[in-house]
Amino acid sequence: MRDDIARVLIPSDQIQSRVHELARQITQDYAECDTLLLVGVLKGCATFMVDLARSIDLPLAIDYIAIASYGASTESSGVVRMIKDLETDIAGRHILIVEDIIDSGLTLAYLCAQLQRRNPASLRICTLLNKPERRKAEVKVDYLGFDIPNEFVVGYGLDYAERYRNLPYIGILRPEIYAE
Fold it and tell me: In what residue span(s) does the Phosphoribosyltransferase domain sit (predicted)?
């Protein structure tokens, strides 16, 4: 599996350091909030969200939503489908969407529009990775881990065909792996 990685883009220690910095900022920004609701976008967010939640020093709740636009491809199809909805009523709640990566922004723009219709008190976005040069839809990122180049990355929750999620770092997948 590690032989499939062309190079490590962001090592584990750098990820953990940035996660703690983000958590400190979120803790400060939501200090007056009764209970923050983290909404994780499955499946890629899971590793990041768990580490982030453990580092936030506030009362919080967690829920998950699953939407799909990739399938087994390396490119977003642009067609977004809801696979799993939230179990929590978010009306009047402070919501922080936790994403693994923002690429075109189409999926996240769709999700934000859907969640805004449910009347949250606030809605912000925290993403570990951002590919600004791929953006097709405007999304405001409130908490950003890293801007990255337009490379296909895996690890720390991100996958290709359900593989590589368990790598402790963000790595660039060798193109011959996904060109097969």
Answer: 13-160
- Distance in angstroms (rounded) separating the CA atoms of residues 156 and 160: 12
Tokens 């584990």, located at residue:
12
Instruction: Report yes or no: 94 and 69 within 8 Å, Cβ to Cβ.
Output: no
**What global pTM score does this model have?**
0.92
Residue of 51, 100, 103, 159 with catalytic role? 103
Q: Is 34 an active-site residue?
A: no
Tens of pLDDT, residue by residue over 119-170, are 999 999 999 999 999 899 999 999 999 999 999 999 999 999 999 999 999 9
**Alpha-carbon distance 102 to 86, whole Å?**
20
Q: What angle do CA 85, 90, 91 make, to 5 degrees?
A: 135
Q: Is the pLDDT of residue 76 over 60?
A: no
